[in-house]
Amino acid sequence: MMRNIITPAVLSTMIPQEFEDWRDGGEDLRRELTHAAMRDLTCPAG
Questions:
Q1: How far apart are CA 25 and CA 32, in angstroms?
Q2: Which residues of 4-14 are buried (b: 16+ CB within 10 A; e: fewer)?
Q3: I need a labelling partner for 32 at 20 to 30 A (CA). Which of 3, 6, 22, 45 fits?
Q4: What share of the chain is helix, strand, coil (3-state, %, to 5)?
């Protein structure tokens, strides 16, 4: 099975239709997209 690698660079180049395609792909793809976005967030201390 081929896996998509989602990086911040990839996220910044995606067009709205691509996000919709991921959404239409089902819960597993949506979760993968969410995790890719959250992975690079900086949380404040405390």
A1: 11
A2: eebeeeeeeee
A3: 45
A4: 60, 0, 40
